[in-house]
Each structure stands twice: as C-alpha cells, then as structure tokens.
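Quick entry between incubations.
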Amino acid sequence: MSNEAVISGGLHVEHGAGAAAGHHGHDHEHHEQHFVWKYIFSQDHKIIGRQFLVTGIIWAIIGALMSVFFRLQLGFPDSTFPIMEKFLGHWAAGGKLSPEFYYALVTMHGTILVFFVLTAGLSGTFANLLIPLQIGARDMASPFMNMLSYWFFFLASVLMFTSLFVETGPASGGWTTYPPLSALKEASLGSGLGMDLWLLSMATFVVSSLLGGLNYITTVLNMRTKGMTMTRLPLTVWALFFTAVLGVLSFPVLFSGLVLLIFDRNFGTSFYLSEIFIGGKALPHIGGSAILYQHLFWFLGHPEVYIIMLPGMGMASEVLSTHSRKPIFGYFAMIISLVGITLLAFLVWAHHMFVTGMSPFLGSIFVLLTLLIAVPSAVKVFNWLTTIWRGNIRFNPAMLFALGFVSLFISGGLTGIFLGNSALDIHLHDTYFVVAHFHIVMGVSAFFGMFAGIYHWFPKMFGRFMNNTLGYIHFFITFVGAYLIFWPMHYEGIAGMPRRYYDYSAWESFKHFQGLNAFISIIAMVVFFTQLLFVLNFFISIWKGRKMTTLNPWGSTTLEWTTPIKPGHGNWVGEIPEVHRWPYDYKDDGHGGDFIPQTLPLRPGEESH
Amino acid sequence: MSVFIIIALIILVFIIIYQIGKASEYAVVLRGEEKVKAQANRAIALLLLVMFALGMWGIWECHEMLKGRLLPTAACKTGENYDSMFKYTIIVTGIVFFATQFVLFWFCFRFQQSTKRASFYFAHSNKLEIIWTTIPAIAMAILVAIGLRNWYDVTSPAPQEATVVEIVGKQFNWLIRYPGKDHELGKRDFRKINDANNVLGLDWSDPHNMDDIISQNGELHVVVNKPVKLLICSRDVIHDVGLPHFRMKMDAVPGITTTLWFTPTITTEEMKQKTGNPDFVYEIACDQLCGKGHYSMRGTVIVQSQADYDKWIASQQSYYAANNPSGAPAPARPAADSTAPKKDSVKLVSMK
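Done. Structure below.
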C-alpha cells in the first residue's frame, strides 16, 4: 500500500519506503507556492479541511443569526425591533418581521445548519483533516477531486446566499421543501426564484458531497499505511467512513427528488402534483403524488441525520478516550454499532411520514425498525460511560464538549423513542416536541461533537492552542443554555403546539406559552452571543494563540500527532510511520508514561488488542 | 441611538471576557502550568457535579411550572390510550435518562485527574456488551408492542355507524362538508371549483350533492359518543388536520383522500367546566407548513349532544340552495329548507 504512486490531476505524490527522506512530492513543494495555489485552489487535504471549516463557521453565524431574528418574533410578537429593519430591509418594515420572511428565515436556518454547517462544515472539515493524518496517507486518493468538492460547496454557498437577496425572498417552504407548496409559484412568495436557487444550490451541494464522499471512502480503503489494518483505525476514521458511505448512497436519491421537482416547477411535468386549484384556477396536473417527494426526500433526509451524528460520535469517542487516559471501551462493539446505525439509517425514513396517510401496516414496520436504532445507540452510550469509568479525566474544553455530547445525545435520543413510535407520533408530529428532539440530538449534540473536534485538533490545524478559559465559558453557557432552550420546548410539544407558526396569540390552546417563548428567545440570544465568543477565540488563536511546542500535546496514540507541528503537503517528512498496534493503548508504557503510540512495536510478551 | 449603546455594550463585554481569557494564560505562565491546570481540573469537576444537581432541580421546577399548561384530559378513547402510553414511555425513558446522566456526571467528578491514581486499563467485555444490547432490545420490544396495539387501534377502519364528514384544507382555512339528509357525500372535481359559488367543486350532476352542507368558518360539529369519520383532502398544498385534544392528526394531501376517525367523549360545554376556562374550545391546527398564513389556519371542533347537533344541522342551508337562491330548489331537498337562516357561510377565519 505504501508503495503506491498516486496520480491525480497532474500532481504526482510518491510516497513510501522508496522515496528519499524529504522527497515526498512534487517539485513545487520545495519552493514557496503562490498564495493562490497554497491557500485557495489548494489540493492539500489539510487546507481543504480548513476551508470547509471556515466556510462552515461563516454559515453557522448566518444561520444562527436567522434564528435570533425569528426567535424575536416568537418571543415578542407584539414588539417591534427597528434593528431588524437594518438587516432585513422591507421584510421587517417598521421592525416587524413579515410572515413570509419569517418562514423564509426558518427555511434557510434549517437548510444552512443541516447541510452547509453540520454536513459540509462538519464532515468536510474532519474527514479531510483526519482521514489522511490518522490512516497515515500523504493526501486523499484524489486531491484534485477533493479540491473540486470544496469548490462545488462554495458554488452551492454562493447560490444559496444569492437567494437571500432576490425580490421574492429565499425559499420559504421549510428545509424539507415539500411540494406542492415548493412547486407552485402561486403558493408562496418563497416558491419563486428563491426556490429555483435553492434547488440549484442543493443540486450543486449534492455534487460536492459525492465528490468528497467517494474520496473519503477510497482513501480509507486504499491508502492506509503499513500495518494500519481496518481494525487498527481510530473510531473517528470509522465514523467518517460510514458517514461517507451514508452520503454516497443517499444523496443521489435526494438529487433525483430535486430534479423531478425542478421538472414539475419548470417543464410542466406532474411527478408531485395532482388535482390542485390555486390562484383562482385549476391546474392541469393530474396523477402525481405529493407523497412521492417525501419518500425521496427522507430517503436522504433520515440518513442525513446520521451523516450529521456519526462524525460527532467518532470524535467524541476519540476525545473521551484520550482525555480519560483510557482505551475506548468496546472498540469492536463501537464499530458494530456504527455498522448497525448505518444499515438501519436506510430503513427508517418513513417514520417522518406516519401521518401522511400511509398504510398502517407499512407504518408498523417502520416503527419496529426505528426503535431498533435505540439498541446500537444505547450500546454506544454505555460504552462511552464505561470509557470514562475509572479513568483519569482531564477537563479541557475538548473533553467537556465530548462529555456534553454524550449528555445531549442521551437526552435527544430518548425523545426519539417517543417520535419513532407511530401511536405517539400521531399527536407529537410537527409539534415543538419534534423541534426540541432534533435540535438536542442532531443540532446541539452534533455541534458539541464538532466543538470537541475543533478544540482537540486545533493545535494540529494551526500549530497553536485556543484559549482554555474562553473555551470553558463557551462550554458552560452553551451547555446550560441548550437545555434551557430545548427542555421546556418538549412541554409545548406535549401540549400539541405546532411548529413553524409565526404567531400563537390567536390560539386558545397555545397562547399561554407566550411567557415561555419569550424566555426561550432570551436564552437563545445569550447562547448566540456566546458562540461569537467562540468564533473570536477561534480566529484570534489562529494568529495569537499559545504556540504548540511539542508534537503530541494531548499524549495521544494516533498518527496525526507524529507529524511535524506544522505539517506541509505530504504530512510526514520522510517515511510514513508504520503502525503496530490499535489506536487506544492508553496504558503503562513501562517508562512511567500512560500511553503507547500506534507506531511503537509490541513489547516482548505484550498481547495485541 | 439605544441600538448603538447596546452594540457597544456587547462589544465591551466581549473585550472584557476576552481579556479575562488572555489573563488566565499569563497566570498559567506565572504560577506554573501544572498547578494551575490541576486546580482548574478540580474546580470543573466540582462545577459539573453542581451543574447536574441544579439541572435536576431545574427539571423539577420546570415541570411544576408547566404541568398546568398541558392539554386537558383526552376527549376520546384513543386519546386516553395515547396518554397512558405516553406515561409508560416517559417512565421507561425517564429511568434511563436519570440513571445515565447521573452516572455520566458522577464519573466525571469521581474519576477526575489525580496524580495518586492511574487509569484502569479496561478495553472490552463481551458480557457487558451483551447485557446492554439485550436490555434495551427488550425495552424497545415492549414499547413497540404497546405502540402497535394503539396504532392499529387508531388506524382501524371506522365503524359502520360513523358519521362521515369531509374536511378540505385550502390556503388558509378549512372547508367542512356534511352529507345532508341522504347521508351521502356527492362527487366532486377540482376542475369545477369556483371560489364564488362552488368552493369544493361539487358535481351538480350528482344528486347526492344537492343536500350537502358546507361550512366555511372551520367549525366541525360532531356528536358526543358517536364515532365520526373524517375524509381529509386538500385543494392546493399539503395541510394537516391537527386535533391536539383528541391526540391525533392527519395530512391533507391534494389528490389523495386520507381518513381519521374518533369518538369524542366530552362535549365542548363539559370541557369548559372541566378546565374552568369559559373560552375553552377544541381547536383544529394546521400542522403542515402551507404558506404565509399557515399559523392562522384554524378550525374548531364543536362536540355537542345529539339534540344540539340536530338543531344545528336543521338550521343549515344546503350549499346548493345557499348559492342558487333564485334558481330551482335542489331536487333532493325540500324547498322549505332554502328559507332557513343563512349562517356560518361567510365568516372566514382570516389572517391577522
């Protein structure tokens, strides 16, 4: 494996035993590369990872700011906020959000956070950064495709961002964009040009995701260094590998769904449309099914939530083990549960559709398969808990976020047991219970996994540390804030309060939650500003943070910490190290240390894991 | 002006917090890294434990504060089953929640870093894995069993004697059609829809349509203790008939008819007394985002005694008669009915 020559897009990277020390690449690597090739159209996986991360952070700020705006409306429906007019113009004339733009904000918030931040920003960042570094590869299988993956994401970003400024506003049919609402321009302002741009952007995004995913899979399967068997891969790599598998198998289905929607919108087809009277006239469409779109959408949509969750699971496993100074408990059980989640992820999509009038029998199958996911999820939780048991826990920000990840994953996972059971979903569907559930489990929890990863690998990315104190403040406010925001929302959902309402004051059954909504909005704003503190910490630390002086600051066993403090393109100077053991040997090394790197051969008499 | 002051204040707070963060780094240098880190580690371990305790107290307080704002007793049999199933699920998940969260935070505190102790090398145990694979699997099997019993109950075919009512969603109100004296809903065709005099596109060549009553004010009248079957449809985009007090909902999809049936057990008047709220009303909430007026797409369910219902239905004019006052009376309906007071047909639930 290590003797393979990788040829891609004109860049030859020879690596392995045959290459002389220091001679691991293209001639250009020995000269200063031009800024454009080094940082913009870079083919270095570490730079591409950082590009995904920075773009993701920018999107996260935009997406979160949108939630602040619509929380202002929800919390204080009778007040006006002139500052909103400065941001949103005529959509918030007089400081009062219009219903159309409220729905546009809700839609964009969901789309941005789910796809641009927690898919591209999360697995784009960490699959790029960690896969080659942790498996011992010089770069991805195809660095050029990898670069394209980022630039397609960038193009998708530009299209989506543009849609915020069109006259009829961005898409406003919810992040799921169910037709006919999203298919008919008459149905809503946001179903005009904004929706076309949404569809184009998402189609481009799928291309980006596939280019990335194929690359990650190929790299993990083919580019591992000598001795790095699949059962010696860190769980981060396993998780990112399954994330890519999920994406590659499910995104094409979304793509087909989107293409059919584009056809219905523009070319007069009737895939999703039937018997519709709107805008004062009956449309000619007959025979389509609006439910078909939901099947296609959720065939991606459900795996998508695992695309969001798995990287966090992998990183939390790695961080919990490293900072507890203990091996991850049940390494194989962790891999098997990842396999289980990946398989089941494809078999549960219709639990989002229990109340669409689907056959009750079909529904019951999806209930069974959905609740089955609780089993591998429970296995993971118990394994994490046992990992920290009798550990020697260091509470740095990365560890705190990994622990927070576990706490939130438990809380959000348990409410999934309610929603996956159709007999309960029939009441809870599309209420705030759902909002609370998915925000805790795939919103905040996934973010916590991401934060854990950022704090943990920041030194590897930038050769400096982030400020710890700010990290602690960030953790505690975010953790407490997340529960304060989303815990009470469950009560609103149990009371049947529907999601995606602009105003509840006319409803006898829901208006008494007004005070609670105001409370939630205030906390949401505090949490938002705390995230800005993180952003500040992140960017200032890139240039001003405490410098990393040792190769392996966390005392970690994995390969990425054997690279130079600031690794160049090609990662290792000289040969790629050989791997001799599994990645979680946190035990007495015989010299007073508490870990043994993967690169050290087994001692005489030592059993391999 | 005040906006700028607020922004300036926020920036100031940021600078202060940032400086505190920066200062802590210098403190580390001055006082020795190991010592400061050990201190911080102890403080955080304690803080996590305190946070857990406060969290549990917060959960209790939150429950005390909000339990009175939940829905009243379910107003139908399947709703009661829902409530009891919800309770069982809460018990199962609640036990897991408290146990695992406690363990998580306790381990954090108990196994915080200490120089006196090395971590325990414990990499796997098949026995443990089998235990915590089996127990959740059994718990899930029980919940699935309860769930499917209720699911087949709530989705079972409606009884023969059920009153059939059609409810059609449109942007942004509900149109409700009662079958009239012949107890039969006539055919309709979306191409015949006309907002002026045929909101549902009734096919006038079908005699069953002549006595059908359409209420456009979103009021669904049902008889207590008598099953009612809803035929759910949409004229334009997907809506959803959400009936929180009956613990059920069903999508209204253009081109597809879905159904939902239930037997209301408590009249609106009784519920007013039970809840002590004179304004109490069963509400129909649209639960599927349907456009700009989604949040105002409100209907009501009036659960009443058979006598009250009969009185109400007798006062209703057929849709045909209401829209053809000068024309020939509907064939299937006595002419006398056309003189009944016109009610409930114009007051649309409008957006704020």
